[in-house]
Design brief:
Helix content is 74%, strand content 0%. By secondary structure, it is an all-alpha fold. The chain folds into two domains: 97 residues, Rna Polymerase Sigma Factor, Chain: A (Orthogonal Bundle); 84 residues, Winged helix-like DNA-binding domain superfamily/Winged helix DNA-binding domain (Arc Repressor Mutant, subunit A, Orthogonal Bundle). Helix 1 packs across helix 2 and helix 6 packs across helix 8. The chain is elongated, with a radius of gyration of 18 Å. The protein starts with a helix and ends with a helix. About 9% of the residues have low confidence.
């Protein structure tokens, strides 16, 4: 966004209000990225704060070759991974119980349709929760946050080919997981 680049220039000139505007614009997404990787809301919040400290300190190194948001999300993703490794090097969850896939309503739905949509969201969130953290982040960045393959590559540090391959395999894996989940629910109903 051109406006982001203008604010970056203002921050580099010492305008703290411009940095506050950048934080307010991106704080929810940075938190989403960190919460996908970390175990708890508190850890995700702490990592998000670390992200904005790093951004403030490293803003002079932003070369504006990519969008500011891509650069920011790269820092957020890598900070969250590093934070998770420091906190618990063995295992960590990608999502806490308060995070749900949100799909915006375009058409007014009935209460039954709302319940069905919520069930689909919960099923998808559960399937994503079962993925490895890096894989869950790739799915989230590409499908839920609508980043391009190139942007996902820049954020994760993976090659474009690797991202495409992972997306293909993860789609199949999610399809299998969702099929198993739905099959067990059908069997429970019968």
């Amino acid at each position: 966004m051109v406006e982001d680049n203008i604010m970056v220039q203002q921050v580099l000139k010492g305008d703290r209000h411009a940095f506050q505007q950048l934080v307010e614009r991106y704080q929810n997404y940075v938190f989403t990225v960190t919460s996908r990787v970390l175990r708890s809301r508190e850890e995700a919040e702490e990592a998000a704060q670390d992200v904005f400290l790093k951004v403030y300190k490293q803003l002079g190194s932003f070369e504006q070759k990519s969008k500011f948001s891509t650069w920011l999300y790269t820092i957020a993703y890598r900070t969250a991974i590093d934070f998770a490794r420091r906190k618990n090097p063995q295992a960590y969850s990608i999502e806490d119980d308060e995070s749900y896939l949100q799909i915006e309503d375009e058409v007014r739905r009935t209460p039954v349709e709302d319940m069905q949509q919520q069930d689909i969201q919960e099923q998808l969130a559960e399937a994503i929760r079962q993925l490895k953290p890096v894989d869950a982040s790739i799915i989230t960045l590409f499908y839920l946050k609508e980043h391009t393959v190139k942007e996902v590559s820049e954020i994760t540090g993976l090659t474009v080919t690797n991202v495409k391959t992972k997306l293909f395999r993860l789609r199949e894996l999610l399809r299998e997981q969702l099929s198993r989940q739905l099959q067990s629910e059908i069997e429970d109903l019968l």
